[in-house]
Amino acid sequence: MMDFTHSLLEFNSALHLLLNTLLVTHLSGHHTICVIRGPQDDIRLEFPQSTLNLLMDARSSLEAFNQQLVRAIDTGCDGFVLTESTLLPFLDTFRAAHEAASYRAGNKRIIAVTPLEAADRHLLISHDAMEVTPNILLIVPNATIRSVDLYRTDVLPAEPRGITAGLIRLDGFIFEESWSPSNMSDNYFLGMLSDFRGRRWQTPFLAFPLSLWLMVSISFCAGTTAVFITERQRRRMHHRTSAHQRYRLSDAIFFMVSLYVEQSAPLHTDLVAGTILLAFLLFGGFMVGNSYAGALSCVMTVPRYEKSIDTRADFLATGMKFVGSTPVWLYTFTLSKQPDVVKLRNSYEVYDVPSLTKFVHTRNDLGYIYERMQYGSFSLESFIDMYGSRQLQPLKDEVFYEIVITACSKTWSMKSVYDDLVLRVQQAGIFRYWEEGSTFRVMGEEIQRNLAFARVRELDHDPVKLKMSHFLGVFFILFVGLILATLTFIAELLVYRMQQKRLIQVVQRVD
C-alpha cells in the first residue's frame, strides 16, 4: 500500500511538471490564464503570468458559473486550464459566456486534464462548441502504467458542407526516472501552415533569371576562349618544348570553372596580358559566385510568389477573367461609367457550377465573385470548397458596395416602430449572431478562417527579384578587363613578332 501511494505521488508530481511545462511553452503569450477546477481537483501551477482561479461547486447552478466565467473573460482571460469535472460544463457555457462578455480575445487556447473515457470522448467531439474552440489540448493521464498521452482537437470539413470534430494523438510519455520535459515538442496547438510544393530539380537554376544565365554563359565562353588562346601563345612565346603536355581546351574550361566556383587555379604571371586577364577573371568569378550563392539561399528559404493583386486595377492589369454562376452579380454596376468597372463588367463570364468547381482546382487565371456580409463573414457559392479557400485570397479593396433598404408607404403607421425594431436588433447583435452561426454551419469555420487570414503573413514591402540592372557593374568590369587584356595581348604579340624578325635578320647576317 505504501509503495502504491508513493508511486501515485511521484506520478502526480511528474504530471504537474508536465502541465507547468505546457503552460510556460504554450500559454506564456496570453494575458491571463483562468484555472477552472472542481472541489476535489488538485492542480498546483507555477506560472509567471497572471492567473485567475475559479471553483466550480456541484451545488452552484450552471447560470451562476456562467456569470463567473463572464467576469473572468472580461478581466482578460484568454487561456483556460480545465479538469475532468469542469471540461464539459465549461463547453456548455462557452458560447453564452463569450457572447455576453465585452472582451474579445483573438486566440483562445484550452488545456484540459481528463482521463478521456469512451463516453467522454463521444460527448466532446459531438459538442456544439467544438466548431468555435479548435485549440484544445487534452492531457490524458494513466496512473496505472505511469503514462500520459496528448491529444488535440481538430476541425475537419464535412461533405458536402459544414464541419466535423475529431481528436489527433500528438505524443505520449512514460514517466520514468529518465523522463525530462526537454523531450517534448515545441508546439502542440493547431497552427496555420503554408505548403509550398515545387519541382526541386529546378532549385539550382532558379537563383538567376534566364537573361542572367545567358550573360553568365557568354562571359564564361569568352573567358574560356581568352584563357585558351593566351595560354597557348604564352607557351609558344616561352619556347615550351614538346616534352610538356600541350594546353587543351578542356584545361581552359576547368580553369574557368575553378574561378566561378571560387576554387584554387594555377596562375602564371610571366605574361602581362595573362596577368591582367586573370585579375579581372578572378574578380568577375568572385562576384558571380557570391551573387549566385546569395540568390540561391533566398530561393531555398523564401517562398517565390508574383506581385500581389490588391485592387481592381491590379486584377485588370493581369488580364485575368471575372467569372461567376449567374449574371445577377452584374446588375449593381450595369449603369456604371467608371473605366475599370466597365472593363471588369465586360470581362465577366458565366459558367455552370460544375465547371466553376473544376476551374477552382485546375486554373489560376480566374477571379471569382463573392459577397462580404455586414460583419465580415464570407458568403460563398458552393464551388468554393476547402481547397479553394486555401488557394484563393480576397482583394484588399472591395469591388463594389451594396446597401439593402426596405421600402414602405410614407403613411404607414408602424414605420417608427419598425425603425426602432431594426435599431434594437442591430444593437443587440442578433444579425451578427445569425451571420456567424449560418456561415459556420453551412460553410464551416475553417473556410472562413482561411479566407480571413489569407493575407495576414504578407510583408510591408514587395519582394525585389534579381534583374539585369543588379549585375551591370559586374559585367561592365568583367568585359572591360577582357577588352584590356585582349588589346594588351595583341600589342605583346606584335612586339614578339617584331623581335623574332629582328633576331632572324641578325642570324642571317652572321651566317
From TrEMBL:
It comes from Anopheles atroparvus (European mosquito). GO terms for molecular function: ligand-gated monoatomic ion channel activity. Residues 211-482 form the Ionotropic glutamate receptor C-terminal domain. The keyword Glycoprotein applies. It is found in: Cell membrane. GO terms for cellular component: plasma membrane. This is Ionotropic glutamate receptor C-terminal domain-containing protein. It is a multi-pass membrane protein. One of its GO terms (biological process) is detection of stimulus involved in sensory perception. Keywords: Cell membrane, Glycoprotein, Membrane, Receptor, Transmembrane, Transmembrane helix. InterPro entries: Insect_Ionotropic_Sensory_Rcpt (IPR052192), Iontro_rcpt_C (IPR001320). Pfam families: Lig_chan. Belongs to the glutamate-gated ion channel (TC 1.A.10.1) family.
